[in-house]
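Example 3.2
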Amino acid sequence: MEPDNAKTILDAGRELAAKVQEIAGIPCIVTPTGATPIKSVLDLADERADRPRRRRGTAELQALASFTEHVNRFKSRDSAIFADAAGRRFVGVLNYHPAGEPSIGTGDMRPGEQRAAWGDHRAVYPCPLSPEWATWGGGVECAATQDGFALFLDAHDRDLASGAENAAGTPYPSPADLMSLAATLEAYSSSKTKRTRDPANGRILVEFSAEDGVKAGLATIPRAFAVRIPVFADSEPSAIEVRLRVEVGDGKAIFKFQIHDADKVLREAFKAIIGKVGESTDLPVYV
């Protein structure tokens, strides 16, 4: 009997054709091995639908107020916010899992069980540091010449804190005192310098002298002063201690300043924003 080539070709074509098959209750298009992989018919339907079946996607907000407003717009009773202290960012999971025992499988749920949620509708706030925090070194020690430090104080005099005290209750130098120091440094910018320490209070004394003896003077350098700046772009300004020291070499003074205990300052400022986020959204914030 002669083989039916036409039938063989048709049978082979049917084997290669995609089939609709139900997998875990979801209709899928299944293609032969080595061809296009399994594709859900629901995905194809979503591509052509007027609107999606559910919300998903991530919105990255650049302001704290916008983040909380976005979360409040889309939140449900099961939404939650995660605060990443190390990465300094907030992630709001708007379609988060409900509380309670998880349901297993697709059958009937037992009393008290809750179905899981997708967790893929999110809002993110990166919580950027403030420009002022970067200007004052962000915890890294900064160095400047005598002239450079004087100019720096003059340029950022609005950041200097007034009426601030340290943990022991001792007042920091006032902005007026610091600006007077800057003027002194500028006046003796071309003078030789010599550094000594006052044994009574530990303050640094810098003595200025000129070769011709015309210019001479003495400046008391405080061990620390305070600036009032925000740590994060959306945090409130607060008094922050800046440590100051002077090194003298070859008759020239180098002023070095650094935000004191910067890691602790960052932690406290981030904790304050956590409280603000929780209060503004009335949602749990997990660190």
